[in-house]
Every structure is written in C-alpha cells, then in structure tokens.
Amino acid sequence: MTTFAHEHWSSRFAFLMAAIGSAVGLGNIWRFPFIAGENGGAAFVIIYMMTTLGIALPILMAEILIGRMGGQSPIGSMVRLARQHKKARLWAVIGWGGTIGAFVVLSYYSVIGGWALKYTTLAVSNAFAGMDGEGSGALFADFTASPLTLFFWHTAFMGINIVIVIGGLHKGIERAVTTLMPLLFLLLLGMVVYAAQTPGFDQALGFLFKADFSKVTAMTFLTAVGQGFFSVSVALGAMMTYGAYLDQSVSIPRSAFIIALADTGVALLAGLAIFPLVFTYALAPGAGPGLVFVTVPIAFGQMDNGVLVGTAFFVLLSVAAITSAISLLEPAVSWAEEKFSGGRRTATLVVGGACWLLGLASVLSFNDWSEFYPLASLGVLDGKTVFDIFDFTVTSWVQPTVGILMALFAGWVLSREDVMAALGVTRAGELWFRLWLFAIRIVCPLAILLVFASAVWPDFVASMVQPAD
Ligand code: PFF
Predict the structure, then answer these.
(1) At what angle do helices 12-23 and 175-196 cross, to 10 degrees?
(2) Distance, CA of 255 to CA of 366 (rounded, Å)
(3) Counting CB atoms within 10 angstroms of each CB, which of 91, 336, 366, 426 has the fewest?
(4) Burial 34-59 (b: 16+ CB within 10 A, else e)
(5) pTM above 0.85, yes or no
(6) pLDDT digit string (tens) for 62-88?
(7) Which architecture, in CATH terms, is 12-465?
(8) For ligand 1, is residue 233 a contact (CB within 6 Å)?
(9) Most ligand 1 atoms within 8 A of CB, residue of 31, 105, 165, 239 to mutate
C-alpha cells in the first residue's frame, strides 16, 4: 500500500504550539465563559476540570497515538491501521467521521471567526464608545442581519486560513503558530493583568472559584464533557493529523497533558479577563452566546482605555480562532493530498473553497434563513437553523461517536505491545499506563455513551439523572 510522505514537525515546540493553537479557540474564549456563566460558575469549572482530565485527556492521547501510528491523514491512517491489524475496514469510519465533522465545523467556525475580525475593526475605530446594553445589542443585531457583511468577513477569515495551510507544514502552519501563539499568551496575560485592577475582580474570582454545588445536576457533567471535547479538539481528526506529523522521539502522554493543561488554563484565564469587566460594569455573567459580542463591548465602551483593551481582546479572539481553524482544515487537505496528485496548493484551494461555500448556509442562518428549519421533521432538530444543525449534529453526534470508536480502537483493537511501544512504556505495570488503559477501555466509552444519549433523548436522560421534585 502506498503511503504519502507528509512533512514532519521541525520540533516538539512547533508541534505543541500547533496543538495548543488547535485546542485554544472560540471554545475557550467565547464558549467556555458563557457556559460557565449559565451553569453556575465555579461548580461547573470544577466539574469541567475533572471531566477534561478523566475523559478528554485519555482520548486526546489515544487520538495522537493513532495518528502517529498511521502516519497519514485520519482517513488514510485508519484504512492503513485496520488493514495492518486485519480488522474490518469499517474502522475507517473514525477517519471519515472526523474529517467530515471537522470540515462542517470549519464551515460555521469561519463565520464566527469572521465576527471576531469584524469586532477587531470596531474596537480599533472606537465604535463601542458610550454604548449601553441596548446599543450594543442593536450593533450586533444589525451586523448579523446583513448577509453581505457576514459574507465578507467569513470570506476574509477563510481566506487567511487557506493562505496559511497552502504554505504547508513548515512554511505555513508552523510559521503561523509559532508567531501567533506567543502573541496570544501575551495578550491574554495583559488582559488579565488589566482586569485584576478593576473593582469587579474579586467578584469574578468568587464567581469562578467559589463553588456552589446546589445548582449541579448530572446534566452539568454532560455539558462539561461536551465542552471539554470541543475545547481540547478531540474526536474530529485534527489532533490525529497533527499526530501523524510527529516524530517518534516526542512523548505523547507528556504532550497531551501539556495541551489539555494549557487549554484549561486559557479557558480559566479568559474567564478572569472577561468576568471582572462584566461585574465592574454591572452586566449579566450568564448572558449566553452574546456574552463576548454583546456584553463585553459595553465594558470596552465605558472604560478609559477601551480602544486598547477592546482591540487586544478581539485580536486575541481572532488569533485563537485562526489557529484552531487551521487544524480543522488540515485533515481534509492531507487526505486530498494523498488521494489526488494535484499537490497541496490545489488540495487546499478545493477543500477550503468547498468549505467556504458550505459556510454560506451559516451566513444566511443569521438573517435570510433565520427562520428556516430544514430538518424540523426530525424532532430533535426542530427549531434549528442550518448553523444550529451543523453545530448540534457534529458536537452532539459525530464527536461522541468518533470519540467512543477512537477509545475502543486504541484500547481493544490495537495490540497492547504496539501501543506500549508507541507510547514509550517499558513496563505494562506502570500506574499511569494502567489508568489510561482503564479510562479508554471502559470509563470513556461509558461516559460518552451517556452524553450521547443526553443529546438524542434529552428529556429521557434528564428524568433518569435528575431527582423528580
Ligand atoms: N478546540 C477549538 C476551540 O476550542 O475553539 C475548536 C476545535 C478545533 C474543535 C479543532 C475540534 C477540532 F478538531
């Protein structure tokens, strides 16, 4: 079987920056704060850390491991490994599911990434000055109501990603992430230092770190698992692709731990940058998806250094989104490189172009198609726009399915000797290795099954896991 010779990371640092760049994204800075806000703050944060450590991290290790053992795109790797181990070709569904899932996520991720770019220009031009809640809400509503404006920013965002990915692993992705990630950390620290001096900081600390478990239900766990999967970038083939470019000498367990830790750290720091502003200006912490685009700009419009702080914040958000989007594009591009002989440039242009086209459905979901629910006849998808359907199906169905299959494949299908060799484990009795094996063989599949069920039959699972009152 022929294999395609992909470039390899030029250093462990480059790999880590790319993988942390993939993990740290809109999920950390846009989604985590509002999900924590809606789910009671600190209690959610603690549960989130537990589920990320116990479920997302073991799967992240399995995913990078499978990628490195396969050495190809997720599809190519799975076909190859299934054949090598004389297992059913059906296992390739891990590769297909992940690749298509990542492609679909990118199509709408790019639309939101475009919002971040647009809001950067608004912040620079002092557009938030003196704005109240109503003004900020209207600004956002007017912006999203215009298909042409959203089209423009979606195109700009996707264009940036295509340009980076066309450059290849060394000249494109590595160069981008090794400059952008340090910039991201710097901006984030700057934001937290600024926020620490505002009067709302203490309240934010309490909100994020003083746990009130009275609001916790089993549903909180399920939300945490889903958020952890998205945030750590597992089960969509992105980490598998990055793993395929990784030299044998780099430790997977250590790298995975660093990636998950950095991702969680950034989510918490994002909370520490955002909530002090929210409390200082007496805004609502549980404001939902509008938290970053509607609530936080009000604070920028009222503070003294609003242009500077606001610009820093939206550049941070844009950078986080770009370095994640690259990793969502790469699985399909690497597959197209292997499959067709057109070279990387053509592969990226075709895949990126198709994804851009699909993204137009999400652009319209916020305006012309905002009341178009194409799959309303399937009960659970009723009331969902195309954008909602894409987000929901991938994060609630594709990711859990691929996640379970990845865990089972690494835990039960690959031989233990191969896995130990690939992970650099010398004694089967090593405690962390036994824990990891237990996690991916049993704990992760069962836990994800519950998450899956909660998405498909929300009422049923809620009634099972919540005490009747
Ligand atoms: N982890 C990214 C975020 O938190 O925004 C999103 C993401 C990227 C999910 C890549 C999955 C993935 F494969």
Answers:
(1) 60
(2) 39
(3) 426
(4) bbbbbbbbbbbbebbbebbbbbbbbb
(5) yes
(6) 999 999 999 999 999 999 999 999 999
(7) Up-down Bundle (1.20)
(8) yes
(9) 105
